[in-house]
Amino acid sequence: MLNRLGRMTPIIVALALSIPLSSGAMAQPAAPDAKTDVSATTDPATLKVAREVVAQMQGDRATTLNSMAAPMAAMMQQMGIKEPERAQVIVREAVLPMLSDHYDALLDIQARSFASVLSKDDLQAIGTFYASAAGRRLATAQPRLAQAQMTGMSQWMQGLMPEMQTRVMQAIKAHGWAPGDKPK
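The structure assignment produced for this chain is given below.
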């Protein structure tokens, strides 16, 4: 169980932390092009503005991380730690401190992503919004919005599950596969 947990933690963390920043862009993925290469060299001035914007968007670090405690505990339970109290202890004593220790690296990755896709002028305009009263309220609300989105997506997927199972079985039958078959 713990080995499985160790392999899954980076995926869970990445998904959980990306939600506050990606929530506005979930409708359609961007078409891949040279501008979306995060590893591309970015103008230092643009990167500086992007770092400021990402910090504004995330809001208070402790609030952001603490807002993930309940969803992370639920994920721990889905991964095999069935007792809610134990899942909460693991999140509180292991997961959240680790996320906090590596939070700046995440912000840097996100800033590089923003700087690779948005212009310095766009980033400054976004920063101006986040410096406004409405922007500060949005940043403060982000953890609650992210949790509501996760809950909504989960409910949506649960509602689609019977239809998905039917369609998956139809596709399997249409291809002449049997459940559990290995590719030849």
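Interim note for the steering committee: The chain has eight helices and no strands. Residues 1-37 have pLDDT under 50 and may be disordered.
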